[in-house]
């Protein structure tokens, strides 16, 4: 595992942007929720994670999300998450963009996080828009409702057929455009528009590095592809980067 080129670029970087995908969460044991055993194996995520399904049967959708929330709370951030939290304090301008909804980046200590697909630990009322942190799921077949207006409460995640939050994506584009180094970690680079961020950074002159278990469709466009687990590559990167900064403050 040769990190020398990436380390050289990091050492001179004033701005760093990182995009993470499901690969980094998989190392914590977060399942994809496709082909699950039991009841949920009978449904495709597309059949539950969409607004029409929610309106038709909000209690069923909430039952699935309650299960997902429980599973995600039982896993912990891994060394890859922790390394990115440490990197945030080592760069003057750092932005972490994630496609994951599991909240593991924030739980690991990252604070500058742009969540493109939302956060499963948040919810909001579809009528008045009020955000709710802790949703209490009533006895079936009911679904949680807003205590202010009585409207249905839904998870604050981007469902199939919905657009990404434009303000957050615009902020992510701006971070990619000003980055000196852009790292694409644990993502297949096939889900757009998130995958376009690495190309935005590349076109703006950034050094773009990919850290993944295998090469992707965009690997040929990147400056560096490092094959390996994020939980192994990133801690090594942080250790060497810290040593360089101490040697050349």
Structural overview:
- The protein is α/β, with parallel strands linked by helices and 249 residues long.
- The protein has 2 domains: 4-30 and 77-117 and 164-247, TPP-binding domain (Rossmann fold, 3-Layer(aba) Sandwich); 38-74 and 124-157, SIR2/SIRT2 'Small Domain'.
- Helices cover 37% and strands 18% of the residues.
- The protein has 10 helices and 9 strands.
- Helix 6 runs parallel beside helix 10 (230-247) and helix 8 (166-178) runs parallel beside helix 9.
- The chain is elongated and about 60 Å long.
- The two termini are 25 Å apart.
- The mean pLDDT is 91.
Write the layout of secondary structure elements.
Blueprint: H1 4-11, E1 15-20, H2 22-26, H3 45-48, H4 51-56, H5 58-73, H6 79-88, E2 93-98, H7 104-107, E3 113-115, E4 118-125, E5 131-132, E6 153-157, H8 166-178, E7 181-185, H9 196-203, E8 207-212, E9 224-227, H10 230-247
Parallel strand pairs: 1-2, 1-7, 2-3, 7-8, 8-9
Antiparallel strand pairs: 4-5, 4-6
Helix pairs in contact: 6-10, 8-9
């Amino acid at each position: 595992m040769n990190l020398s080129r990436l380390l050289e670029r990091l050492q001179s970087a004033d701005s760093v942007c990182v995009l993470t995908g499901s690969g980094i969460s998989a190392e914590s044991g977060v399942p994809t929720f496709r082909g699950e055993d039991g009841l949920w194996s009978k449904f495709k995520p597309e059949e539950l994670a969409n607004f029409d399904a929610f309106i038709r049967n909000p209690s069923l959708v909430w039952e699935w999300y309650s299960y997902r929330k429980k599973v995600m709370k039982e896993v912990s951030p891994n060394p890859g998450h922790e390394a990115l939290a440490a990197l945030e304090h080592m760069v003057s301008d750092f932005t972490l963009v994630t496609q994951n909804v599991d909240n593991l980046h924030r739980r690991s200590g990252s604070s500058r996080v742009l969540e493109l697909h939302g956060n499963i630990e948040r919810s909001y009322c579809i009528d008045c828009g009020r955000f709710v942190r802790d949703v209490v799921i009533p006895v079936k077949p009911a679904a949680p409702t807003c205590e202010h207006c009585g409207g249905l409460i839904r998870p604050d995640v981007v469902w199939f057929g919905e657009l990404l939050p434009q303000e957050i994506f615009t902020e992510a584009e701006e971070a990619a455009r000003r980055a000196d180094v852009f790292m694409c970690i644990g993502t297949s680079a096939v889900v757009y528009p998130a995958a376009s961020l690495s190309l935005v950074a590349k076109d703006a002159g950034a050094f773009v590095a990919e850290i993944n278990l295998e090469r992707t469709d965009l690997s040929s466009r990147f400056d560096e592809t490092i094959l390996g687990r994020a939980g192994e590559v990133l801690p090594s990167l942080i250790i060497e980067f810290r040593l360089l900064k101490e040697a050349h403050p």
